[in-house]
Specification:
Length: 331
């Protein structure tokens, strides 16, 4: 399938957000106490983790949704060839880059590659089943099948822990990406015209579900949590894609277009270059809410740009090496 410029730009923005969120968390002495919202947090901790929570509500689902969009239909490539290609592109780098992560941070990381490979298998299954039961391309059947696959896999794999289970929570955005490609005209007529309304819905839902100030009934709270878990990822992804589609010709978007074509390299190598100075995080948390948010945007954006540039610079000689290009980047 040919590259689509605004989707590359959305991927580039997502990889920037990933590095940005890591720069925030890794510069707090105890990042969980700040970034993971809980009752009893101080005002400084709430605002210290606000940007991180906004980013994490949708930036990884955005990757999976775009990947789902490019899942090829059976008539373009055989399932066997597609899965062999995805294994070479994802599982081999998962092992090689995981070793790097273990050396640098002490744990076998880069779960994204493993989850994306697993979702590639799920996506193929979805496409195959859909080919037989939904020949008329009815949106309602697509959505019901997506829900059934998620429920069945979630229930059957609920006893498995660790990275092997993470892919299940990303089934909705990944398959929604497949559905989006199948119903492009519907996307054009529904999502694009009401993009600013969707933006408002996103932030209202985020605040209501994550930062409840007033006591609310348990039933309402459970509904809001479900909306946060399943609605925010897809909604945030749709908003991002729609915005880049509208401004894709802007010269500044070309930067994200470049980053979108190098997401694997940045994802693997940025861990080596994100500057970590806990004193920065402590200083930011001591400021008033407006200053706290402003400093995070300015300081951590700069740290992210540095890490991304160094990652790209290092990737150039590594890409020229057949060994690294094949086993680390999967090309």
């Amino acid at each position: 399938m040919e590259r689509i410029e605004y989707l590359d730009q959305a991927k580039g923005f997502a990889i920037f957000l990933m590095v940005f969120a890591h720069a925030i968390a890794w510069n707090f002495t105890d990042w969980q106490s700040v970034c993971i919202y809980s009752q009893g947090q101080s005002t400084s901790e709430i605002f210290g983790g606000l940007i991180w929570n906004i980013v994490y509500s949708f930036h990884m689902p955005l990757f999976f949704l775009i990947a789902g969009y490019f899942t090829p239909p059976p008539y373009e490539i055989s399932t066997k060839k597609y899965l062999i290609k995805r294994t070479r592109r994802l599982l081999i780098p998962y092992i090689a880059s995981g070793i790097i992560c273990f050396v640098v941070r002490g744990h076998f990381g880069y779960w994204f590659f493993l989850s994306l490979w697993q979702l590639s298998v799920v996506g193929c299954l979805f496409v195959k089943i859909n080919q037989f039961i939904n020949k008329n391309r009815m949106l309602s059947i697509d959505l019901v099948l997506m829900l059934l696959m998620y429920v069945v896999l979630n229930r059957s794999l609920s006893n498995i822990e660790g990275d092997y289970m993470k892919f299940v929570s990303y089934i909705p955005p990944y398959i929604f990406g497949i559905i989006l490609a199948r119903h492009q005209k519907l996307y054009d007529t529904i999502f694009l015209p009401i993009i600013y309304t969707l933006c408002c819905m996103f932030f209202i839902l985020l605040i209501l579900s994550k930062y409840s100030v007033l006591p609310i009934p348990t039933v309402i709270e459970e509904i809001l949590n479900k909306c946060r878990l399943y609605g925010l990822p897809v909604l945030g992804s749709i908003i991002t894609i729609s915005l880049f589609r509208n401004i894709s010709n802007n010269k500044y978007c070309k930067v994200f277009n470049y980053l979108g074509k190098r997401t694997s390299e940045i994802y693997i190598l940025h861990i080596l270059f994100v500057i970590q100075i806990p004193e920065i995080g402590s200083f930011i948390l001591q400021q008033n809410p407006i200053t706290c948010i402003t400093l995070q945007l300015v300081v951590f954006s700069q740290l992210s740009v540095i890490a991304i540039l160094l990652s790209i610079m290092l990737s150039i000689p590594l890409r020229n090496s057949h060994l690294f290009n094949k086993y680390l980047f999967g090309y």
